[in-house]
Automatic annotation (TrEMBL):
Cross-referenced InterPro entries: IFN-lambda_sf (IPR038326), INF_lambda (IPR029177)
GO biological process: cell surface receptor signaling pathway via JAK-STAT; defense response to virus; innate immune response; positive regulation of immune response
GO cellular component: extracellular space
Source organism (scientific name): Haliaeetus albicilla
PANTHER family in the record: INTERFERON LAMBDA-2-RELATED, INTERLEUKIN-28 AND 29
Keywords (A to Z) from UniProt: Antiviral defense, Cytokine, Secreted, Signal
Coiled coil ranges: none
One Gene Ontology MF term: cytokine activity
Designated name of the protein: IFNL3 protein
Signal sequence annotation: 1-21
Gene designation: Ifnl3
């Protein structure tokens, strides 16, 4: 019994000593958005199919919206990489929330694949933000856009927000690509 206790104590002491030898930061998952530099064709086709189907629905509904959320006077390349991460995370949050709204069965089925892809991209981006820029404060132009987003969420109808998010989905994907490319985006 005494031999078992000594063995257990030795294992605990050695284990804690080895844990100190390897910094905890090296055990964390590294940030990699490289898979979003060049999007997989079948993901782009799924997004395109969903967008086209939505445009057909929009023609039938005759919806009037004033949302100009994705019309910006600046381009994403003008932002720092941490600002890009904040921007794209906010865009993906809006898009995934809108794709999660109830929809007609056929359209709900069409948007499942893009929703899963965009949700994964957002989670990957959040992981990078937590490791690379945990306390980043957005620049003035980005802060202004984020305020515009919050105002739109309060004043626009869910249908108009959904239309804006889906119709500008390729802009969001390009912003994601530019964020993944870091400084090389044009």
């Amino acid at each position: 019994m005494l031999h078992l206790n000594l063995t257990l104590l030795l294992v605990l002491v050695l284990g804690s000593g080895l844990g100190a030898a390897f910094p905890q930061d090296t055990l964390k998952k590294s940030c990699s958005l490289s898979k979003y530099q060049f999007l997989v064709p079948h993901e782009l086709k799924a997004v395109q199919k969903m967008k086209e189907q939505f445009e057909d629905i929009m023609l039938l509904s005759n919806r009037k919206c004033n949302t100009r959320l994705f019309h910006r006077k600046w381009r994403i390349v003008e932002l720092s990489v941490p600002d890009r991460m904040v921007l794209v995370e906010a865009e993906l949050a809006l898009v995934t929330a809108m794709l999660g709204l109830p929809a007609a069965p056929r359209f709900a089925e069409t948007r499942q694949r893009p929703l899963a892809f965009l949700t994964q991209a957002r989670e990957d981006l959040r992981g990078c933000m937590a490791t690379e820029a945990p306390s980043h404060q957005p620049s003035g132009k980005l802060r202004h856009w984020l305020q515009k987003l919050q105002t739109a969420k309060k004043t626009e109808t869910p249908g108009c927000l959904e239309a804006s998010a889906i119709l500008h989905l390729f802009q969001v994907l390009n912003d994601l690509r530019c964020t993944a490319l870091r400084e090389q985006c044009t």
